[in-house]
């Protein structure tokens, strides 16, 4: 029997059918597919994904790493699972589970029965998972074209509150190796499914660096909301491109960092709305924040009412801004302007030289900080300064030192940021000792060395580096070069007009 | 008499009233304002702007530079204006003029009469403008809050086809000084008006660097369409924030460059649609392009049917991609991956050293080019390479040279990009001559110098610099440092286990 409305979905009337949530009647989808309706992703994929147990079976058959799991049909089965996997034991509903619904934890054999009851009993279809000792939860949005070519979005970290996605950090603050491993698992997981579209792959990162699959959603996902502002192609446009058979867009980030904060209902009814609106007010004061309010008619505790995305030049910067947004009493917010350049020197005796770098940065309106950090006298300060600089939003470090000038090279060894070294002329050797100590770095750790005592050039070099991502700075640098040329031309003209003798003795 | 519907706009039912086009009945707006409806911008502003002659009078009273103009009421007046301003003479309708409608050019006194007729005769209200000998048309989107604080978007260049906006380049490829001047004029023009909202200020740049006001629109504008993808806050969101009394968002660019292309009707009816859809197909193949199709029911020649915005890391890059998109026969598009690093050297004898920089860039998957450019033997090549590198999308230059090593410094003098210098050991002095020739640059022109023969470090330094805008690269650099550490630790362990003697004689 064909449902009357399904005739309206014949190939000539419906170009393609996709889903925005996997909890749909998959039998109908399959019937439509048989009638020639183009479903993307395929009904087979929806069938696998909407049953979490089936999903685990599928992925384990495709050699995707995931926590151990087993089906349970009665309390005896649950106990056997507890003996096998230990406690805490995660018990899950096979179907209609999302945003933490359908999960229950039993901390001991005594809690098994109540956990099963909380999930509606064995008739609902339950299975257990071995507790994954994760240190972080990661996620990857994967886009798959009709021709099966695949593009992956950057790996993000997801932070949950009572099992509900609350904060997403993009990109995840994990090593390159972990990112690659997470992307590989996500790629393989989606490769094992059928059909085009955007898929969200949720992952566990364990303490020993393993990546385990948690679950897959066959659609745009909360972990990809940040892509609207932070990526060249949002997950929503990408999903439509994929299912419609259009070429995929670039999934990479156009902003170095983004943080997404879900506005979850704090309270029922009116008071919940008041709290949410206070939060939105504060979010609107952050210049690089975007507010999304879903305009749901009813406020409930823990309900997703909207979200805020803040983009910026480093995770440290956007985290600071989120922190300020969440302070209820805060009336002022850290500006988007955190220091971008750190000027450090081994001793205050270097300051008369190093001040020239600060002067240049002032001229170009680049925010900076100035600090004394000695490699030899305050090695711990140097260590913590260099290794935390990137997290704090510093983008270039200018380090000045004299004599056995170790500061620039040591700092370069402790940070992935570019380090500019200024050889300061010390008492002996006219600065050649400083220069060679700074420039002759071993393979692997570069220091961008400028001329002896020439902190002006260090400032200018920092501006040129920052110009890589800021065309305004690049244009200002061109203007600076033009102005310098005009200064010299003026002098040349004066010399021409006055003659060399009166030029020297005015 | 109060129109019956206007009662529905009383203060309690309508928070704020704004306009999306200035050609509205301003008398009604004024009446609503008197009744307490909050109009943003103010009716007074709409009244000034919708009459182009009144607009000119207003801005000239506020000392905003603009082309000379005068009202004309009959042919005699037009002739007097022609005598005064010369030909070609621009004749304009005072009202209902946009997208080139309402403009006519008289190239001589004989053409005056037909130009006036083309505009519907003197009864429509006409004025003339002295021809502005512009070299570029610029525009600035200006956002003004209710408290009169003002934020300006980056200056863009607009390119018109038959008086209709066709291409917008953001930011405009003009000097920093010109950008500042244009922003100043736009700021002053909007300051002279009343009410909140987004305003588009269209400007002429003349050959001698003057900025003249063309006209102002009191609303989001075609010259700001690119902001949807390229700026932290789009002009549309900004307008709503401004009129609703919310804090303004950041108007700066989150992508270094953007180009917007209006899809104008090429032909009436079906064949016009076919051409437009072919263009869209090609646009969709460009990974960082976004297509906006307005779904207007009718296709007409020169009608704005949609637009495409391409963002990228330099104007050169997005211009190349637009060019490819416009080639009808093109089947492949320049990828978003143009070389980001230029590796140049004075002689092929430097290649055995310089290859190490290329190896590092390969390892980090950074696109690069390798060229021989000699300061002394091919000064013209050096000059053109260095001065065009930025336009071509190069972001960092690595230059190697030996002996009297002038290449890095000379290139640095000709580009605003960061230049990394590699001193190559020549036959004499063990490379100290090369090192000092490269590092001891005068104030004003920095070269980031690395150790003698150490092109590996030059490659690593380039990666660190590019990491300023690419967190992936930064993470890979951290991983590289981690891997290097592990290599050394392995050697240390082997030495520990084997003892130093068997370590040396395995």
Automatic annotation (TrEMBL), chains A, B:
Name the protein family.
In the C-terminal section; belongs to the AIR carboxylase family. Class I subfamily.
User: Catalyses which reaction?
Assistant: 5-amino-1-(5-phospho-D-ribosyl)imidazole-4-carboxylate + H(+) = 5-amino-1-(5-phospho-beta-D-ribosyl)imidazole + CO2
Give the keywords, sorted.
ATP-binding, Decarboxylase, Lyase, Nucleotide-binding, Purine biosynthesis
**Which PANTHER family does the UniProt entry name for this protein?**
PHOSPHORIBOSYLAMINOIMIDAZOLE CARBOXYLASE (PTHR11609:SF5), PURINE BIOSYNTHESIS PROTEIN 6/7, PUR6/7 (PTHR11609)
A cellular component term from Gene Ontology for this protein is:
chloroplast
Pathway assignment:
Purine metabolism; IMP biosynthesis via de novo pathway; 5-amino-1-(5-phospho-D-ribosyl)imidazole-4-carboxylate from 5-amino-1-(5-phospho-D-ribosyl)imidazole (carboxylase route): step 1/1
Q: What does the record give under GO molecular function?
A: ATP binding; metal ion binding; phosphoribosylaminoimidazole carboxylase activity
Which enzyme class, named as a word? lyase
The record's InterPro entries line, in alphabetical order, gives: Ade2_fungi/plant, ATP-grasp, ATP-grasp_carboxylate-amine, PurE_ClassI, PurE_dom, PurK, PurK_C
Q: Please name the GO terms of the biological process aspect recorded for this protein, alphabetically.
A: 'de novo' IMP biosynthetic process
Q: What is its EC number?
A: 4.1.1.21
Domain ATP-grasp positions: 56-244
What's the protein called, per UniProt? phosphoribosylaminoimidazole carboxylase
